[in-house]
Amino acid sequence: MIWPVPYERLIIDTPLSDSDVRERLTDLIGGGRLHGSVGPDQFSISPVLNYRNSFRPQIYGRIAPGLYGARVRLTSTMHPVVTAFVVAGLLFGGGLTALVVIPSVWRSGSLSGLFVPIAILAFLLVVPAIGYRYEARKVEALLATVLPRNAVDGDRGDAR
After folding, report:
1. Domains in the chain: boundaries
2. Which of 37, 67, 72, 118 is the most buried (most CB within 10 A)?
3. CATH number assigned to the domain covering 7-78+134-146
4. 0.85 exceeded by the pTM?
């Protein structure tokens, strides 16, 4: 995960063929578990939620033939608009703290004026990460049930 914006990459080596992977992802979308689309060698999915969570993961993937089946490369992040709001909030909050709050605390000699801006910045860092991670774990578990891994593939890969 890249801080402060959740961003993850994952490689799944599966014994399934490319067409089986596409079929299983299409079944998840058709079954109402995921939103998205599946193309010949790529897909875009996000979880179907019965509640509001602006930080739900958007997952983009590529399907390619692997050594022993198919290789699925996943990139997971928040929606670009939500990411822009989070980054803008952090920049605004950090700038306001640096330009207004810190000089006034410096003049007064009391650190109590830093509590509210630091709490706001902490909130803007923690809430998106928790909301995103909660949903991302559920999608990873769902994908693990439909895309079995090869016996030698047990850890996260580097999808660069």
Report:
1. 7-78+134-146, 83-121
2. 72
3. 3.30.310
4. no
